[in-house]
Specification:
The complex is a heterodimer of chains A (339) and B (277). Chain A is elongated, with a radius of gyration of 20 Å. In chain A, helix 10 (246-256) packs across helix 11. Chain A is α/β, with parallel strands linked by helices. Helix content of chain A is 39%, strand content 18%. In chain A, the strands form two sheets. In chain A, strands 2-1-3-4-6-5-10 form a seven-stranded mixed sheet, sandwiched between helices. Chain A has a five-stranded mixed sheet with strand order 7-9-8-11-12, sandwiched between helices. In chain A, strand 11, helix 11 (271-282) and strand 12 (287-293) form a beta-alpha-beta unit. Chain A starts with 6 loop residues before the first helix and ends in a 14-residue tail after the last helix. Chain A has helices spanning 7-11, 20-34, 52-57, 69-81, 92-98, 100-108, 137-142, 155-167, 214-228, 246-256, 271-282, 303-309, 314-325, and strands at 38-42, 62-64, 85-91, 115-119, 148-150, 172-175, 198-201, 206-210, 233-237, 240-242, 258-266, 287-293. Chain A folds into two domains: 7-175, Thiamin diphosphate (ThDP)-binding fold, Pyr/PP domains (Rossmann fold, 3-Layer(aba) Sandwich); 198-326, Rossmann fold. A five-stranded parallel sheet of chain B has the order 1-2-3-7-6, with helices on both faces. In chain B, strands 4-5 form a two-stranded antiparallel sheet. In chain B, 51% of the residues are buried. Chain B has helices at residues 4-28, 33-38, 40-50, 74-84, 124-137, 156-167, 188-192, 197-203, 216-228, 262-276; strands at residues 65-68, 144-149, 173-179, 182-183, 186-187, 207-212, 234-239. In chain B, helix 3 (40-50) crosses helix 9. Chain B has a single domain, classed as Rossmann fold. Chain B is an alpha/beta fold and 277 residues long. Classes of the chains: A alpha/beta (339), B alpha/beta (277). Chains A and B meet through helix 4 and helix 6 of A and helix 5 and helix 6 of B.
């Protein structure tokens, strides 16, 4: 019954030409053949969220509720109660905030099989301003019991995440960008498992834990630092924020003693906080820095300008790594050099 | 329509449950007893006459569904499910207590026969629309019933759902408004008025009926009529009395939520018996 979207299936779509959201739409169409219980909902964003292709293929399994996100998530909860697997797409800011209570109380509390594809995450729709940016959604969604939170690195990983989410019981929140982000993965020849981080660069001097667009940037930073600074930089793609891969984090503490998190999100409550919790509870010490938006609303601008401004790009990450490498973290009683 | 015999049986059932609500409220240390009583006669007609449900198989995918959008009505809903036979009535004694399946608002994962968890107002109707759409998409012919409170209709999400239900012509959905005219801070029309309420629903594209929500025959007739309507959803505005059956509670804003001592319990039982005598 279940079908893996394997290399051959998704390679049909050219990741260089298709956006994350377009790939999501295509993959969902493929999955729709295999899973008759998949249905899709939109709140007047079928075109922007690319779920429209599913509508074209399965018009009777698609509902547009108009500009009414609260109703959309409530309707999805009701549909899930009848055995369907609703895929609900809207912008991350409206999912997490406008309909946050419906997601918590209707979907998570009842542990319903609703899959949320939140588009325009972070500052990907940066020129639209704060009303359309989502820099708190990960913090909100990961605080809901029963919810799984995934931030794929790019379109290829989005395809994998969507495919896995169908088989993964309970509510899943998949946060993607606007669709113009450069891709990290060249093919889908790697293991994607919900809750299992992917080590994309090996290293022992420092570990960068990144999500979303920052995965590519961190990899580029690591390559640069290896070449010009002689640093051995580990990079972890922490695509699943919840449940987080504690083992990968604890291993990184032991191996590198320095951790840098990078996320297109507030540094309050997101990836950085989740990683910090694991570090604190482990009882092991390490130098630690979070990169993201620091308790602020983002500027207007093109996304790449904002990535640079908030040090989410490779240049910013290189600078941060050099800073943290200046901290001489060791196991001694001298705290001066670590403060 | 109800036969004379059906009417008598439903009336006796409503009477039994009203007594059960009083006893459960007493043991629970307090409950939303006013709104539990106001919607009870609709619940009884649905659960004991119309709904296609099997207490032995409460999760049957083809069963009719019910959404108590005014989730604080759990004090009326839970004793109704017990009386219908979904679980042992003795369990009602745990209401509100540590690790009980029953709190002030119903939890569908804990209560056999409860289809949807509710309590946050304005959430039930969207979920009911989703249940009805789920039925249609899977070509199932089960019906979805929903009771909303009148005060609850201040919440905008209801009107999002009302718009969607009419747009998608959800004729497998039947909504009751428990029009008891009271909300926590006072009379609904004084706090945030809804009138002309029937016109609002009609303007949204719904078939709207208005009935006496305590007249079992009228409730049954309205449901029969609703099932004849095609291509649009139906709402029944049921005029009710908050605290119905307990004279000292009737139409009293303060009995939205209350606790009972043994004296008030005795008076309540006596008042209920008087109403049914």
């Amino acid at each position: 019954m279940s079908k893996e979207v394997t290399g051959t299936a998704w390679n049909v779509y050219d990741a260089n030409k298709l956006t994350q959201a377009e790939i999501y739409g295509q993959v969902l169409c493929d999955l729709g053949d295999e899973y008759p219980e998949i249905v899709a909902l939109s709140a007047d964003l079928a075109k922007s969220t690319k779920i429209g292709v599913f509508q074209d293929k399965f018009p009777e399994r698609f509902v547009n509720v108009g500009i009414a996100e609260q109703n959309m998530f409530g309707v999805a909860a009701g549909m899930a109660k009848t055995g369907l697997i609703p895929f609900v797409s809207t912008m991350a800011v409206f999912a997490s905030l406008r309909a946050g209570e419906q997601i918590r109380t209707d979907i998570c509390y009842q542990n319903l099989n609703v899959k949320i594809i939140a588009t325009h995450g972070g500052v990907s729709f940066a020129s639209a301003g704060t009303t359309h940016q989502a820099t708190e959604d990960i913090a909100i969604l990961r605080s809901f019991a029963n919810m799984t939170v995934i931030v794929p690195a790019d379109g290829i990983e989005t395809a994998k995440a969507v495919t896995e989410a169908v088989k993964y019981p309970g509510p899943v929140y998949i946060r993607i960008g606007r669709g113009f982000e450069p891709t990290y993965y060249k093919d889908d020849n790697y293991d994607f498992k919900i809750g299992k981080a992917v080590e994309i660069r090996q290293g022992t001097d420092i570990c960068i834990i990144a999500i979303g667009i920052a995965v590519l940037q961190a990899a580029e930073a690591a390559d640069y630092l290896a070449k010009y600074d002689g640093l051995s930089v580990r990079v972890i793609n922490m695509h699943t924020i919840k449940p987080i891969d504690k083992e990968a984090i604890i291993k990184a503490i032991g191996d590198t003693r320095r951790i840098l998190t990078v996320e297109e999100h507030s540094t309050l409550g997101g990836l950085g906080t989740a990683v910090a919790d694991v570090i604190a509870e482990s009882g092991k010490g390490c130098a630690f820095t979070k990169v993201g938006l620091n308790d602020e609303y983002a500027e207007i601008g093109y996304p790449e300008d904002l990535y640079a401004h908030y040090q989410l790009d490779s240049n910013g990450i290189i600078e941060k790594v050099r800073e943290i490498m200046g901290k001489d973290f060791e196991e001694d009683d001298n705290w001066e050099d670590e403060l | 329509m109800l036969t004379k015999d059906e009417h008598k049986k439903l009336r006796d059932t409503a009477r039994t449950i009203r007594h059960s609500i009083i006893d459960t409220t007493f043991k629970a240390g307090g409950a939303h007893v006013g709104g539990g009583m106001s919607m009870l006669d609709m619940l009884v007609v649905l659960y004991f006459k119309y709904m296609n449900i099997d207490t032995g198989n409460p999760d049957d995918p083809d069963r009719d569904r019910f959404v108590l959008s005014k989730g604080h009505g759990a004090i009326g809903y839970v004793p109704t499910l017990a009386e219908r036979g979904f679980f042992d009535k003795e369990l009602l004694g745990s209401f509100n207590k540590f690790k009980s399946p029953f709190g002030m608002h119903p939890d569908s994962l804990k209560i056999p026969g409860c289809d949807v968890s509710t309590g946050s107002l304005g959430h039930g109707l969207p979920m009911a629309v989703g249940l009805a759409m789920g039925a249609r998409m899977q070509k199932k012919d089960f019906y979805t019933y929903c009771i909303v409170g009148d005060g609850e209709l201040n919440e905008g999400s209801n009107w999002e759902a009302a718009m969607a239900a009419a747009h998608y012509k959800m004729d497998n959905l039947l909504v009751f408004v428990d029009r008891n005219m009271q909300m926590i801070d006072g009379p609904v029309e004084q706090i945030m008025g809804l009138e002309p309420l029937a016109d609002k629903w009609r303007a949204f594209g719904w078939e709207c009926l208005e009935i006496d929500g305590h007249d079992l025959n009228e409730i049954a007739k309205a449901i029969d009529h609703a099932k004849e309507i095609k291509d649009r959803p139906v709402v029944i505005i049921a005029r009710t009395t908050k605290g119905k059956g307990v004279d000292y509670m009737e139409d009293q804003t303060k009995w939205h939520y209350g606790a009972l001592d043994s004296v008030l319990v005795e008076k309540a039982h006596a008042s209920i018996d008087k109403m049914y005598s």
